[in-house]
Amino acid sequence: MSHHQVLIVGSGFAGIGMAIRLRETGTEDVVLLERAATLGGTWQANRYPGCACDVESVLYSFSFAPNPGWTRTFATQPEVEAHLRSLADAHGITERIRFGEEVRSARWDAVHARWEVVTSTATGVCTWTADTLILATGALSDPIRPDIPGLESFGGPMFHTAEWDATVPLDGRRVGIIGTGASAIQVIPAIQPRVAQLVVAQRTPPWVMPRRDRAIPERTRQRYAVRPWTQRLARLAQYLRHEVLFLPFRHAALRRVAEAVIGLHLRSQVRDPALRARLRPRYGIGCKRLLLSDDFYPAMTRSNVTLETTAIRRIVPDGIETVEGTHHRLDVLLLATGFRPTDPPLAPAVVGAAGRSLAEVWAGSPRAHLGCSVAGFPNLFLLNGPNTGLGHSSVLLMFEAQFAQILGVLAVRRARGARSVAPTEAAQARYVRWLDAAHRTTVWQSGGCASWYLDRTGRNSTLWPYGVGRYRRLLGRVRPEEYAFDA
Ligand code: N01
After folding, report:
1. Over the range 106-141, which residues count as b (16 or more CB within 10 Å of their CB) and which as e?
2. Is the pTM of this model over 0.85?
3. Is 179 in the pocket of ligand 1 (CB under 6 A)?
């Protein structure tokens, strides 16, 4: 058993950024538990062809660790992963990560005022204790397979985009892909030129806007390195642009304008009116994640691509069958069917002061004070927790706001000589009521789509309902009266 001041679960952007900020502010004894063999979280797990960031690189980095070396306006997965690795190395975080440690349970020990965490490893079970536990496990870390009859009967290779099997050859084969979300629209153009046939099974057509990805010229990169303020200026411009992009999500009149403008992208890229009609979204823009692509629509017009919009009745050993009886023969089946962020897999295993788990307390609808701590769970902090996701900007900005709040709360705990801290029930309830009211007028509630933003109770427990600036202002100050400190 080993004891640490802080244990962080997960080594993606959130976990690594938190560890850096903790060390910078004087907390040296930080250990990160990572179930994978390498760091990076979602950026090491998702390795499908075409995988790239759909937020501009200049904004998809921490303000305290800018990267003047980004080679494209939208970094590819290998480049994001490499950036994260070099960040962890440069700040002495890599040696603090314990790889291959999958957290099985975490229990608050009130007697010793600490968390007891059990992990499983390749060789057995390990027990850890920590004064403070920070969950940085990501919202999009556990892929879901679709609930389609016969799925397991498929005879050829079948895998989820987040579990890409690069050993399976796709060249010259008949490939099917289920889903047309953010992952699918990156995979489809990347593999379309290589495969013999590509069947795209679409249940809901997404809104897709132009991406305008391009190489960042060497001279711009040099300028960013020599005069960092020029990169900060570019970052500010992107930040403000994204804040404007958010407005249609709250205002129906602006939504209609956005739909008209963004609808031109489909019109300009798909000439065939029949195909266009099948690709046209039928819900309010932003209700599901707004996607960016320059090559998805063109790929859909190629002669080796079939768009299937009729529901799948079942998967059979040699392909998929629709409810109208069409049988698509396939060699390989790809599942681009997303993740389940509203049922965090670790929630049943994290047990708080009253002996109840996060899953029991949440009952299918996660709630947290300011998105980063939960009443009844002392010395526990969440990164990328309930209602901290974004549909319009860089989630790294949200992480930075959470780092500030968590560091601030820990500083007050230290200053008061307290052993533990948790938000009060009243403060959390007030905050959640305010959030729910704010959500009522957003496109996510009224846009006429079914999305993973809403949990099984119909509540939006994933997204922050305003622009990023408001969250940063809210979390930039600690209000000690919102927390209970125990000596
Ligand atoms: O998953 P999704 P994703 N039968 O849930 C369909 C992030 N991300 O992996 O819309 C048939 O968006 C489903 O259909 P429908 C980003 O935050 C970021 O693509 O539910 N179809 C949908 O089309 C994103 O939002 C980047 O009707 C079924 C698709 O599968 C999040 O990850 C890149 C089905 C799932 O789409 C998730 O994106 C990629 C069924 N039974 C992803 N079940 C960046 O660039 C599901 N579908 C940063």
Report:
1. bbbeeeeebbbbbbeeeeeebebbbbbbbbbbbbbb
2. yes
3. yes
**Does the Cβ of 204 fall within 6 Å of ligand 1?**
yes
294-330 pLDDT tens trace: 999 999 999 999 999 999 999 999 999 999 999 999 9
End-to-end alpha carbon distance in the chain:
25
How close is the Cα of 159 to the center of ligand 1, in Å?
14
- CA 167, distance to chain mean position in Å, is 26
Whole-angstrom Cα distance, residue 296 to residue 1?
A: 51
Among 46, 84, 323, 337, the mutation site with the greatest number of ligand 1 atoms within 8 A of its Cβ is 337
**343 pLDDT higher than 90:** no
Where are the strands (E) in 47-191, listed by range? 97-99, 102-109, 114-121, 124-135, 158-160, 174-178
Tell me: pLDDT of 341 over 90: no
Domain 151-214+222-335 homologous superfamily, CATH: FAD/NAD(P)-binding domain (3.50.50.60)
Rounded Cα distance, 282 and 207, in Å:
9
Nearest CA to ligand 1 atom 38: 182
Nearest of 355, 353, 487, 476 to residue 425 by alpha carbon: 353
Please state, in angstroms and rounded to a whole number, the distance separating the CA atoms of residues 157 and 331: 7
Instruction: Taking residues 449-458, report their average pLDDT.
Output: 93
Q: Tell whether ligand 1 has an atom less than 6 A from the beta carbon of residue 452.
A: yes
Q: What distance in angstroms lies between residue 202's CA and the mean position of ligand 1's atoms? A: 11
Q: Which of 183, 300, 397 to mutate to test ligand 1, by most ligand atoms within 8 A of the CB atom?
A: 183
Binding site membership of 10 for ligand 1 (Cβ less than 6 Å): no
Residue 340 has pLDDT above 90, yes or no: no
Amino acid identity of residue 51, one-letter, is C
Interatomic CA distance for residues 350 and 356, integer angstroms: 8
Q: Do residues 17 and 397 make contact, with C-beta atoms less than 8 angstroms apart? A: no
pLDDT in tens, 15-72: 999 999 999 999 999 999 999 999 999 999 999 999 999 999 999 999 999 999 999 9
- H/E stretch holding 335 reads strand 332-335
Task: Give yes or no for residue 337 CB within 6 A of ligand 1.
Answer: yes
Atom of ligand 1 nearest to the CA of 162: 9
Question: Is any atom of ligand 1 closer than 6 Å to the C-beta of 53?
Answer: yes
Beta-bridged to residue 350, according to DSSP, are 106
Tell me where in the chain the CATH 3.50.50.60 domain(s) lie: 2-142+340-486, 151-214+222-335
Question: In CATH, what number does 2-142+340-486 get?
Answer: 3.50.50.60
Q: Is 195 close to ligand 1, i.e. is its CB under 6 Å away?
A: no
pLDDT at 142: 86
